[in-house]
Each structure stands twice: as C-alpha cells, then as structure tokens.
Amino acid sequence: MSLPKLLLPPAALLLLAAGCTKAPPAAPPPPKVEVVTVSPRDVPIVQEWIGTLDGYPNAQIRAQVAGYLMKQDYQEGGTVKQGDLLFEIDPRPFQAALDQALAKEQQDEAMLGKTKLDVARYTPLAKTQAVSQELLDDAVQADLAAKAAVAADKAAVENARLNLAFTRIISPVDGVAGVAQAQIGDLVGPNTGVLTTVSTVNPIRAYFNISEQFYLAFFGPTASTAGERARQQDVPLELILSDGSVYPRPGKWLFTGRQVDVTTGTLQVAAAFDNPGNFLRPGQYGLVRAKTEVRRGALLVPQRAVMELQGAWQVAVVDAANIAHIKTVRVGRQIGSDWLIQSGLAPNDRVVVEGTQKIKDGAKVEPEPFAPAQADRRPGPAPAPGEKQG
Fold first, then answer.
1. With 50 as the cut, is the pLDDT of residue 167 above it?
2. What does the alpha-carbon distance between residue 106 and residue 100 come to, in Å, rounded to a whole number?
3. Contact yes or no for 327/359 (Cβ under 8 A)
4. What is the pTM of this model?
5. Of 236, 249, 239, 254, whose CA–CA distance to 286 is shortest?
6. Which of 105, 146, 280, 343 might form a disulfide with 330, Cβ 3.0–4.6 angstroms?
7. How far apart are CA 28 and CA 366, in angstroms?
8. Nearest Cα residue to 69 out of 208, 184, 207, 220
9. Tens-place pLDDT, residues 37-59
C-alpha cells in the first residue's frame, strides 16, 4: 500500500521558496575620519643654522727675540688682562747689549762735543786767514760725521731697549689664555712657533653659513649696504647649546661674508653674544636660531595629514556633502608638528588627519573633529622637504 502524497497550497510553496533565498547584505557605513578645519593665522618663520663659537681676536703669542725661557707668569686657562706678563726670557744678554749701546752713544757724543768746539774755533780764524780753509772744512766734516754717529747710536740704544723689553712677553688683549706650548728652559725665538694663544671671548663670536637662496630671499636684490646692515640689526638671535638649553643672552648679527662659497653655495655670517664670566668657549657648537619673518595668513595642517606619493604631497579634504577628495599641495616649512601649506588648500577646508588610509577619492565619509595628542604639540622649526638648510 503506497503512502499518500503531501499536497501543499500554492501560497505555502511561494513562502517556502522565498525562505531558501538569502537577502542582499546592507551597505557598510561610511568610514569615520578625523578632520581639522584650516584657518589662516600669522606664523613666525624661524631659521636655524649650525654655528661654531670662536674668540675674536685670537692673539697668537710669539717670542720676538731669541733666548732661553726663564719663567711662565700666567695660569693656563685663566683670565688675563691686556699688558699682563705671560713669559720671561733671560734678559742678561739684552741688558749687556743695551749697556754697550749706551757706552757707544756716550763716546760719540763726546766726539761730537769736540768737533763742535773745533768748528767754533776755526770759523773766525779762517776769516782772518789765521788757519787754512781746508782745516775748517775738515772740522766741519768731522762735526757732521759725529752728529751722524750719535744719531745712529741713539737708534741702536732704542733697538737694544726694545729687545730687552721683548724679553717680557705680555698679553696684547684681554681674554682667556691657552695652554703653554713651550717649557721653562726651552730656547725660543721668532721662528719657534706660538707660545700660547689669548682669546677675547666676551663677547664671543658664532660663525655659521646661510644658503644663497636664504640670502636672496631675506635681503632682496635691491637692498643697499645701509639697508642690509639695518636688516641684520633687526634679526634677534638665539643660541641653543649642545645639551639643548637656550643661552639666556640674545645675540646680534655682526656681518655677512663678502662672497658665496662656490663649493657649498653658502655665505659665512658672524654673530656676537655677550659672555660675562667666559661661560662660552671657542670651539663649542650650537644652533643659531633667528625669527626671520612672520608669515601672514598662513595655513597649517598636522604633519600626519600630509601624504607623499612619488614625490608629490597630497592631503584628503572633506566637502560639505562629506565626500572625500584628494588634493595635491605644496608644502613649506615644518612648524612644530604642522606643515606650512604654500598652495593647494583654501581657508576653511576640512582636512583629514586620521583615517586617510580608509578612504578613496570621491568616497563618502563620516567626519569627526580631530583632537591632537599632547605629545604631538612639539615646538620648533624644520626645513621644508628638499630645502637646503643654511
């Protein structure tokens, strides 16, 4: 006996078929992104250059006469004043030379006295022909020779006095004295090299190089010498030491070198910093920082918002309909953790900071305000991409 067939109404069959077909998935929600609205503001532009400190002048102390070094009268690394005694050379040979020159001068002055008497005595006698004219002429010539001998003796005495004075080697400037390069008992002289160096370090100079591009942009091709000097005086300078601390005293721009180095394309600049107590020393390195201008109406975006693709710099902006668009921009200097945008953005543009990897050009997004972390708010300038630092 066969089982009866199950018969279902047509409506039930339609419901059964519908249950076997999957419903299409719902569209994913737009990706969330964090945006900032860029607005124009005045931004100080800061330049930094690597500088080297040096004294000026750096007086190289040398022996001007030859002799044995008898004494060192200064403390190495200590402060000396102009005229302070540094070294002493054995003065005895030079004192003897001076005594000999003085004796020769006295001898010739005595001879000069005799010739003057002869001329005075023979002159009236020659007029009365009591003596010959030849005798008077010889007396006159002898007097002239004696005068010349005395003049030469005076020069020799002065030279001997100078040589004796040179045995006391003194500092020509105020400053810090260096390490002695000669020891007691050494035979020194004009050809034996530098005995030590005295550097004036208050104020101390900082030398650094600026790029030719910065020079052209900062001074301008129409600036006169007086205008260039005034422009330099308007630049306040800071010195950042190697440990990152800022030297408390401001510096001033002294001069810009006369020519561009053809090898590096830079010009040398000298600045001066007051240095009471001689805290700064020659040979130290530091960063010389200058606020060279204030950029009016500048647009800044966080550094993480800028993407580099094959040498081009891009940002993603969100329009009023929350549609993302990729824009190519030209970036300038880095100001803290932000990039200065030179072109490609407009005021009030909403720039994507977080979530750029989630979006494509023309895609809808869900924007939220960007809240920067405290660690990202770092001050300090940096050069623009590809910019050569001076």
1. yes
2. 10
3. no
4. 0.71
5. 239
6. 343
7. 12
8. 184
9. 999 999 888 889 999 999 999 99
Give tens-digit pLDDT for 107-120: 999 999 999 999 99
pLDDT recorded at residue 233:
67
Domains of the chain with CATH codes: 32-43+294-382 (2.40.420.20), 49-57+199-292 (2.40.30.170), 62-86+170-193 (no CATH), 91-166 (1.10.287.470)
Burial 90-125 (b: 16+ CB within 10 A, else e): ebebbeebbeebeebbeebeebbeebeebbeebeee
In Å, how far are 40, 110, 122, 140, 325 from 135, measured between CA atoms? Answer: 105, 20, 8, 9, 119
Query: Tokens for 81?
Result: 């004043």
Query: What are residue 383's phi and psi, to 5 degrees?
Result: -70, 155
CA–CA distances in Å: residue 282 to residues 21, 189, 222, 244, 286: 86, 27, 36, 18, 11
